[in-house]
Every structure is written in structure tokens, then in C-alpha cells.
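Final report, results section. Input specification for complex C-07:
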Amino acid sequence: MNITKTLLAGVAALMVGAAPGSAADAVLNIYNWNDYIAPDTVPAFEKATGIKVSYDLYDANETLEGKLSAGNSGYDIVVPTLVPFAARQIKAGFYQPLDKSKLPNYGHLDKGLLARMEAQDSGNAHLVPWLSAIVVMGYNVDKIKQIMPEAPLDSLRMVFDPKVVEKFKECGVSIMDSPTEVFPPALLWLGLNPDSKKAEDLKKAADLLKQIRPSVRRFDSSEYINALADGDICLAWGYSSDMEVAKHRAIEAGKGVNISVVIPKEGAERYIDVLAIPKDAPHPEAALKFINFIMQPEEIAKTSSKVYAMSGNADAKPFVSPEAAADPVIFPSPEVEKTLFTITASDPATDRLRTRLWTEIKTGH
Amino acid sequence: MSVSETRKRALGRFLVIAIPFIWLGALFLAPFLIVAKISLSTAAVAIPPYEPLISWAEDGALVLTLHVGNYKLIFSDPVYLIAYASSLRNAAVTVVFTLLLGYPLAYFIATRRENWRAPLLLLVMLPFWTSFLIRIYAWIGILKPNGVINGVLIWLGLIDKPLMILNTNFAVAVGMVYGYLPFMVLPLYAHLEKMDWSLLEAARDLGAKPARVFREVTLPLSAPGIVAGSLLVFIPAVGEYIVPALLGGPDTLTIGATLWNEFFSNRDWPVASTVAVALIALLVAPLLALQHHRAKGVKTMSDKP
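Structure output:
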């Protein structure tokens, strides 16, 4: 096994162009979500530090976890979602502790958010908050109003009431292809605990989802941004930051597609995406430099404005664009914030049951 | 012949045979054994995410633990068999349509003047210069509700609201046939091109009509090309992931998607490996049967006086 590992490490080192842990950290390999950074952040960092960044994208936590599970991914910075992903990845030993003496900008971070993260990452040893957003609904408002003038736009009924959602079948309904973002609201709509791990509750939610299934055209986690912006679909369930990107792309395209992003009044899932350095990162020094760079309030504010998500930086809000700062989906009022919930990690048996139910919902088998 | 010369020949023969075996061993057998090994393990929260097969017990004994539960699982839950069946059906549809489209195309190219054949073949291979993923994405733009096909049909006044082509099994078939067509055309062309065309002339001279010439001369002579092309299309088409994922609807259940679920949603590499091993068994068994059948055919032919 050791020979294999050494060989793999050698191959990984060749691929990223430097020996693991070499002193000259002139390269940084970042693996982040699609549409999740301001376009000038990486060039600004390269200019400030002389470090060359290579930047790869994924559209699902599962993809990231798959790469990291194999070991020697070659990445220096990754951006998992806190729960359940980063939480269990810390337990499995995926990440190295952060050397906070090299992070002088750490003090800008939101203390409340850090306290919330401590439950998963004791002493905030491994993770730094990147952005936080909400799982919400997005509409092509004009098409929805045309079909159903009295549509309950602010309610989960739009997606989870089979009689309501079927009206929008023709104009296109897209749901995230991720059971962990769809079971919680289905449970909530049924009046159950959205974080429930009970098999009977999950089956009840699956029965509800099977009823809305005929109305869903597509289950996907990234294509819906363009589909919504182009008017190919009129109702989507997904990440608020993605929906906001779609909304602004539609405005830029100027084809008269008018998109609205809504937090359901019954409650919604708030998720926190975090920065972490994999244990076998080839350039941990460069990774720390990047984390410190992005913790400058002005820098993270650019990303926060560009991708329409709240940052984990307490001092960044004054630098956020006025339009983003005034957006109630990015910065909800304290009353709305109270209705937002977070979910916790589940055991492998629950994961398997949920995935199996998800396949059954999607394919009927 | 001297002894050393015989020895040299034996060595030469050994090397000629050894090279393809080393190739198969390194690129097929070794990866397969790694996958087969993981399929006998159980999932764990670690790097790599499965338990080692060999461990030391407390009393110092070396313990080899083999879990066969994964194999039981994929036969007890019908979803895996349904996924296999649907992948096999997709692949079969792809073979039939690539053959129907590819045969006339290969025949056309093979019957052109010699200086025309190379440019025509180049046109068949030209799409390979663009990434497969990008070409399939282009089909989204062609097939989607606001896309090219619907735009043209609406402009012509043939339909008044967009047809739902994207995210259907039809779209998957279109994407698969498009993607695998060159794999059918190239071996067919290779066989048709080296065919002895004077045999066709002879058949015509003996009074056979064109349809009969094709059925009794061209088709049997190009049969090895049909078999080679069909296998080249069928085998990768069974495991195809990209086309159903991008062009298919949510009810498109394939073995590729099942593997993704096991690997990424369940983080269960052992079950994923089991699905992969079963897929290989499913593909290799018919190939072996075919090989056996062919070998028998050759034998009976050579047995004839």
C-alpha cells in the first residue's frame, strides 16, 4: 500500500508541478463552486502575492467529497458546505488545522457565525466561513402570474402542494438534484421536523415528493441558473445565490425575463460554505495567504456582491454593493432570519435510505 | 536450423505474444482487480473511504475479511437490474441507429474515387477535435424549448408551442447516436474499402439484381466490419454517463447514474465497485460467448475437406 501511496503522491506532485510541501509555494490550486467568486479576486491575489492560481469548479458537495476521499486531490483550498459535509470530513481527517498566526485578518470574521460553526469544528480549528445563503424558490414572475394570478408566491405550497405545482408543469419546474436540499422543506411542509432522520418521516416526505414528481421537468443543480435566466423554466428550487445570479443574468440579457427570488414563509434552510485546507494540500502556505487575503472586508465584499450571498465577514457589509445590501434574500431581516434552520449530519444508513428514496422519486423504480 | 536460431525464434514469438498480454494485464486486469478488491470491502469514513481487507487481529493473526453482502444487495434490490436493463436497451438502440446511418455513409465513402476518400473520412473524424462534453452541451442548445429546432419549427408555423425534446429518452438516443456514429463508420469503412469489388461485378454478370448482390455478397463480406463497429459502439454506450445526464430526463435510469449515486451520494465505494464488477461481467460474458462461437465456426470450416 505504501508503494502505491508514494507513487500516487509522485503523480499528484507532477500534475501540480511542484513537490508536496515545497518551500516555494508559487502555485495555489483552488477547488470551488461554480459562479461563486468575484471575477477580479484571483487576478488581484496573483498580483499581490505573485502566486499563480489554478481554479477548478464543481456543482455538488458530493463531487468534492469524492475527490477528497481518494486522497492526494492536489487541491490546496476547497469550499465544502458546513453541514453535513465539512462536519463529517473533519471527523474523517480530511483537513489540516489552520495556523491562525498566519491569518492576521481573522478578527474580521462574524463571531456569531463562528460560534455556530464551533458545534461542528471544535475551536474553529479547521474552517473559515466563506459565504452563507439559503435554499429558496425562484420564479419567472410573469409566466407564473399568467398561469395562476393568485399564486401563493411566498409559500412552500408553490413547490410542495401537488395541485399548485402541476399548474406550472408546462412552463417548466426544476428541483435541485440533491436529496439533502429537498427532503428538509418537504418534511417542513408536512409539519415534521425538517432535520428528521426517522425512516418513517423520510418515507412520508418521499410519498409527497412522488406526488409532485410528474410536474418536475428536471432535477439538476447548476443548469437551472441559465434555464431560469433564458425563460426555459418558470419555477426552480435551489440555492439563493444561484437564483440571484439567474435574476441578474436575465436583466443583463434584456430579453424581458423577470425573475424573483423568495424565501418561503414557512422557513428555509440556511447553509454555510466554508474554506478548508486538505491535509495533503501541496501548497498549504499559499492557501493560508489566500484565506488571509480573502478575509479583508473589501475583498470578500466584492464576492458577496457579485454572487449575491452573505459573507462570513462581520466588517464586509459596508463594502457590499448598495443593491446587494438592500436585498432581503441576501441579508434577511431578523424576523426572517429566525425562521431559517440548519440541518445536521446523518449516519450512512440514513444517507443510503435517502438516496434510495430519491432514485425512487426520480425514476419510479 | 541451429539450436540458437530456434531459441531466438522462440524468444521472438514469446515477445510478440507477451506484449499484448502485458498491455491487457496493466490496463485491464490490474484496474479490474483493484475494483474487485474494493467490492469485497465495506464503506468507512476515512481516506480511502473503505475498510482494508487484510488486518492484524489482536492475537497477531493476519485476518482477511471478505464481504459478499454487496453482491447480495445488488441482486436483492431491483433498481440495479432495472438500471442494467435500461443501459443495455440504450446501447442496443444506439447500435441499431448508428448502423442504419453509418453503413450507407461508409459505403458512400468507400465507393468514391481514391482522392476523395481521405477528405471525407476527415469530415467523419473532425468532431473529435472538439471535446465530447462541449458537443453534447451544444445539443442542449439545439433541442431545448427555446432552442434551434423549436425556433425553426415555430418560425415555419408548423407548431405553435415548443416541443419537449430535451430531457426525454429521444434526446438521449439522438445524443448517443451522434456521439458514437464515427465508431461505427470507421471499422465499416475499413472493411468495405478493402473488399474485392470484382466479386460484385461477377454477381451482376451472373444476373443478380442489385438488392441480391448487396444481400448475398456485400453484406456477408462486410459482416466482420458490422460486428467490430457494433462492439465498438455497444461497449462504451452501456456505461455512458454524460449523454443521459445532460440530455436525459429525471426518469432516465442508467448504470452510469447508479454508479454516481453509490460513489457520491452514498459515499459507498464498495457497493459502487460491486456495480462496476457486475457490469464488466455483463459485458464480458457475451463477448466470450461470441468468441467461443466464432472459434467453433473457424474450426468446423477448417475441418471441411
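Chain B touches chain A at residues 43, 45-49, 52, 77-79, 82-83, 140, 144-146, 164, 167, 249-253, 258, 261, 263-269 (CB under 8 Å). The longest helix of chain B spans residues 3-39. This concludes the modelling results for the funded period.
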